[in-house]
Amino acid sequence: MDLGAGVRNAISKITGASVVDEKAINDLIIELQRALISSDVNVKLVFELTERIKEKALKEKTHPSMNLREKIVKIVYDELVSILGEKYEPSIQKKKILVFGLNASGKTTSISKLARFYIKKNLKVGVIAGDIHRPAAIEQLKQLSAEVKCDFFEKGKTPPKELAVEGLKTLKDDVIIFDSAGRNAFDNEMKKELKEIYDAFKPDETFLVVSADIGQVAGKQAQEFSKTIPVTGVIITKMDGSGKGGGALTSTHETGAKIAFIGTGEKPDDFEVFDSKKFISRLIGYPDLEALLEKVKELSEEKELAKAIETGEWNYTTFLIQLKSMKKIGPIKKIMQLLGLYDIPEEFMEKSEEKLKKFEAAVNSMTEEERKNPSLVKIKQRQERIAKGAGIKLEEVKELVTNFDKVEKMYKGLKKNKGMLKKFSNIDLSKLGGV
Ligand code: GDP
Ligand code: MG
Q1: What is the pTM (predicted TM-score) of this model?
Q2: What average pLDDT values come out for the chain (435 residues) when binned by 10 residues?
Q3: CB of 243 closer than 6 A to ligand 1?
Q4: Is the CB of 104 under 6 A from ligand 1?
Q5: What is the DSSP string of 298-333?
Q6: Cα(221) to centroid(ligand 1), Å
Q7: Domains of the chain, earliest start first
């Protein structure tokens, strides 16, 4: 059974149980442990993880508008994401990338995938054939380059460090990728060669390629290689065919290395940027996980907004949530029409939309402290910094402050007039024939 099927099977112990009780939770835990361990995830990590899930499932309060099943799925999701690390955000700009790893880990194939990835982002890509040891390696890269349509540089058996320098002189591309030679083991010869290439090529990014089927050894390998040259990211290949993907992924994250991409097949398109949240969502296969996560987020935002309305204690965080909830109702035009105002000039509508966007940008470039403490935003130096950060005019920040004060006053007034507040909060805008 692959990891996905195992995890889904575990989740079904909750979603399919007639009653969600301690026994159902225990069944979930046992299945989850089985799935993770058979995918080569470190046993200690598995037990720590499942212990946390159990504790949260039994002790954490369930939000009134979420059911117990949903709560438990969410806990499993969060915990699985946490053992995989963050999403990798590839920078879309000129750069040099060095790709390395042991024999047959999938370096050359991954390079064609990387090339296609950056070409799709409208960057020009060139590759340097640096594997001078394996007889057919240069030809293989040449063919793959032709397939993905990127530039290709080779100079036979020229020593790799010289190839790096000459390749950089010849190729005029935005992204230049160096394909290095693998070895059967990470020996001194390989260390020396890698170090030389690194010094000559001076890469911005260095990707270690490991095959998922080595499982937990992936983490150890990342640790070993990073003693010789920095490892900015790991590419885990053959996620499609391996039963040990879970071990490869978690061990890599555990040793502090970042997972950058995963390979899921032999073709140039079988490749994805690693995003733990997306990965786990798919793995869990809970039909409405996205919707569930969105609901959790909205619930906590709504709670904050409701509290602000009730207490009249307004700050820029709640202001931003209000802006966002207005956007949910729809464009200004729609809101105006809902209020029965049809004769507003188009130009006014567009201006208002634009203004809202600017206000949002301004709040986003405030510090946490400023958002919590609106009086700080009255200080001119701070306003200037916020304007700069948001790319708007100082006058526009001042306008935001004035507006904020007005809204605050309005809510304070509403607070005094409880009856009106009640009426106000009873209006369900979605029932007004909204968007
Ligand atoms: P290198 O020696 O590290 O350059 O490895 P190659 O790129 O030549 O790949 C070795 C073998 O693994 C080839 O047969 C590839 O087609 C295969 N391969 C590479 N990546 C993947 C992958 O993500 N999935 C699958 N199924 N095969 C892969
Ligand atoms: Mg190769």
Answers
A1: 0.71
A2: 85 85 94 95 96 93 79 92 93 97 97 97 97 94 98 97 98 98 94 97 98 96 96 96 92 94 95 92 72 68 73 81 69 61 66 82 92 93 94 93 82 61 47 35
A3: no
A4: yes
A5: HHHHHHHHHHHHHH----HHHHHHHHHHHHHH--HH
A6: 18
A7: 3-82 (1.20.120.140), 95-274 (3.40.50.300), 289-417 (1.10.260.30)
